[in-house]
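TEACHING EXERCISE
Course module: macromolecular assemblies
Task: Read the component lines below, then compare them to the predicted structure of the full complex.
Student: A.B.
Group: 4
Components provided:
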Amino acid sequence: MKFSHFLTSLLVLFGVSCESRLFAATFLFGSDGVRNTLVGLSDASVTVDGVTMSLTAGPSGALLDDTDSQGLGIDARSLPGALDSTSGDRTKLNILEGTNNSTSSGESLSFSFNKAGVLQDLLFDGVKDETLEYFLLTFPNGTTVTIFDSQTEYRLDLQGFHLTDLSVPSPIECQLEDDDLTGINYTFQAGEIFSITYGEGNFGDVPGYRTNPNVPLQFPNSLGNGARLQGMVVATVPEPAASAIIVLLACIGVGARPNYRNSRP
Ligand SMILES: [Ca+2]
Ligand SMILES: [Ca+2]
Ligand SMILES: [Ca+2]
Ligand SMILES: [Ca+2]
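Instructor-supplied answer key:
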C-alpha cells in the first residue's frame, strides 16, 4: 500500500471513530456542581469538559438563582404577581401567580450549546406528583412534551383519571423517582434553543381529584411549591484529541522516512 493511501485510510478510520464515539458532558447545579456563581444574572454560560451551555432566565426580567444546594431556580421578584416573596421560591422554578391552574404562566429557563450534540437526560428535583407539578420541555424544532413526576399516573389512576385527561401537550413521566428524565436522545445543532417551563396541572381537568375523600391525605395541597433543575447530560462529538493528532503526525514521519532513505545514494 502506498503511504498516501495508508494515510488516507487512517484519516477516514479516525474520522469514523470520532463520529461514532460521543462524549457525555454532565452539567450539575447545586452542591454537586455550579453554585453561587449565576445568582442575579439573566444570562450566563457554564462550561463543562469543553462544552459550553448558555442559559437565559425567563420570563424576561427574571434572574437565575443557583444559591440552593438542590439545584437551579428562577428569581422573578421583579415581575408583577410573582410568588417569589420567600427565599425558597426565589431558588425554584414556580408559577408566577398564586393560583393553581394551567393559565398561570410559569418561570422558565432556555438553554443552548456551543457545539452540536444530543440531549440525553434532564435532572430535576422537587417535582411533586400530588399537586401535578410538571415541566414543559420545548425542543428546538418546536415540539413540546410535559414532564411529570414518576408517580403521577399512579396517583391519577387511583381516582379514575389519567395523565391524558390533563390539558397539556404530550404528557410523560420521569422514569426515576428522583425526578430525572433519561434517554431523551434529541439531536441538536450548535446554538439551537431548548426551554423548560414550570407548570401545574389544572384540577379543573380532573374534577374530584383534589377533594377526593377516599385518600384525603394524599392531596393536601392545592398549590404546588415549585421545583429545581439539578442538571442535564448532553453528548457531543469531541474535538480531535491532541494525542490523536500526534499519532497522525508520527505516522507521516514514519511514512516519510523510507522515502528519504531510499533517496540516499
Ligand atoms: Ca421562582
Ligand atoms: Ca418527585
Ligand atoms: Ca433528581
Ligand atoms: Ca415541588
